[in-house]
Amino acid sequence: MDDLAFITAVAAGMVRSGTPVLLAAVGECLTERSGILNLGMEGIMLAGALTAVIVSYLTGNIFFAIIAALAIGALIGLLHAFLCLYFHVNQVATGIAVTILLSGITAFCGIDYVGKSIHSISAYKVPWLSELPFFGSVFFNQDILVYLSYAIVPLTYFLINGTRFGLSLKAVGEEPRAAAAAGVSVFRTRCIATALGAMLAALGGAYLSLVYAQGWTENITAGRGWIAVGLVMFASWNPWKAVLGAYLFGLAISLQLRLQAAGADVSPYLLGMAPYLLVILVLAVSKLRQKKIPAAGPTALSIPYLPQV
Amino acid sequence: MPHILFVFLVICFTVLPVYSANEQKTVKAGFLFVGPINDYGWNCAQNEGRLFVEKKLAGKIQTVAVENVPESAEAERVMERMIAQGAKIIFATSFGYLEPVLKVARRHPDVKFMQLSRFDKRPNLRTYFYLHYQGSYLAGVVAGRMSKKNKIGFVAAHPVPPLLQSINAFALGVRSVNAKATVKVVWTNKWVDPAVEAEAAKGLIDNGIDVLAFDQSAPVTIVKTAESNKTYVIGCYTDDCQFAPNYWLTGVSFDWGPYYARICQSVLDGTWQEGTDVCDIKTGNVKLSSFGKAVPEPLRKEVAAAKEKIANGSLVVFAGPLKDREGRERLSAGAKPNIKWLAGMNFFVPGVEGTLPKN
After folding, report:
1. Is the CB of B194 less than 8 angstroms away from the CB of A208?
2. What CATH class has A14-115+142-292?
3. What is the DSSP secondary-structure string of A150-181?
4. Which of A16, B73, B125, B197 has its Cβ near the most Cβ atoms within 10 Å?
5. Which residue in chain B is spatially nearest to A215 when comparing CA positions?
6. pLDDT one-digit tens code per residue, B181-207
7. Distance in Å, alpha carbon of A254 to nearest chain B alpha carbon
8. Which residues of A touch B164 (CB under 8 A)?
């Protein structure tokens, strides 16, 4: 295997391994910009993964499976938003509770679906683009969910920075009372943002079960939801930077496995740690940089909004 | 929020799947499983053993099974509950149950306990070991013959002795028929993480292997990944032929039923004793899964012959003199491995490539 083939294989693996985290991280960016902290991403990914498997198994249709995963994501997102916005509960506690609850429920409901043969998604070469040297085989010899993620990132960025809704979203995330005085519904905006974010996380989960595992396994996400939440901070709430972080995480996984396969003499323990070490390192570095520039986090993040007080 | 958690906990504890049939004058046998019984892997094989007992000794033995039992004080609670329901013998089918088993065994001298893969002595405790690696050797023979590029991949979870036994025996099997072939090992450091397992398999395939073997708890992902990448695959723990109709070669699986039935019969007869059993190819508890359609008839016969030799003792997988890949002698000429030597294995034999972390 020559060097170019090795680098191409590592990079293609990076895109695959990074995509589930990417989707969840971009979703969390959107949610947090509205001032809601959703720590339930891990659980929502699990729910999305299981729902996609169940629907794919029952209907044999990938399209329905993805739609169902998105719907479940939206539902759980709305539940979290409702608890945060209607009952003004502590958002950290609710998020963690959502994750614990869903990891239990998915483990229980998924028992009958372990090892079931489902319709999974396989790679689809994009005509022309896949023939580009290097970039073609890295970015355009993947599956439709990866291509969908290419569209989702700019769309999310545009939604936040280029639309009227994005303006309200940021206003609600920074100064909810001022936004409310200007006639923006804090409740509605935050609900939509949380539901959209959770839908993306569920899509990330569906990617894991439909593309990677090609079936259901208990705790299939193995902590990727938490990584996504961490990456949002590193990304200073910018979807483009979240992509960078997610691909870094994917690169670490892909590289360590391929270094082993290529016969590099490095301890697999060290290599196995690499993805997590990288996330911690990057978080620390970005924190250092933020000392010079004012923190970019939404001012009202995770603060309950009580309009009557 | 506390309400939801409370409801959740109530659901968890009430619907814990406890199977038990109608009350009769029968002896009850309890089974503890560390994971879900339909994992198409380890626990699935164990549960098939239990179902065999139910069928073979219908009317005489009744079984009670609980799955997903953690290897902690929770196991103690589950066993106490089984005993309260009348269980007279308990099968602890995972490595980590020994400590809770010892505690419960002390309190209930009239109940018999069966502990897997661990040594200890008590009047009401019998331990049993399994030599999975004998099957791995035979699978290696298949892999060595089927590999055209002489490059074979092995995705493994953690560098622990049972896995090293499997990998080394597999490589010895490969080398017994194909001196040029190598076995490349990639560690995932996870018992279950399908995304990493699939990526590890992809990485090996990108590197030019044409046969893939593995040892992970839930086998389905890797078997399917191999099929979709047109790479031959060797399974582990259960027969997953259905997931790779074209590229399945064979796999190592278990047949616990006859052994468990024999133990239960000895309880019925009153002949049960403390001691240690070894379950292997000879006893029929470790076996090869069905062959895939790619495996030609002469090779099937060759493997059957090797299996016969292992069973009658004329072929010993880890036979002295055995050197590791650095050339150090690990087993002197004429020596045969015992359980203790096997349980301390921490080296690779020649032909295995990849890093072995030093402990």
Report:
1. yes
2. mainly alpha
3. HHHHHHHHHHHHHSHHHHHHHHHHH-HHHHHH
4. B197
5. B221
6. 999 999 998 878 899 999 999 999 999
7. 7
8. none
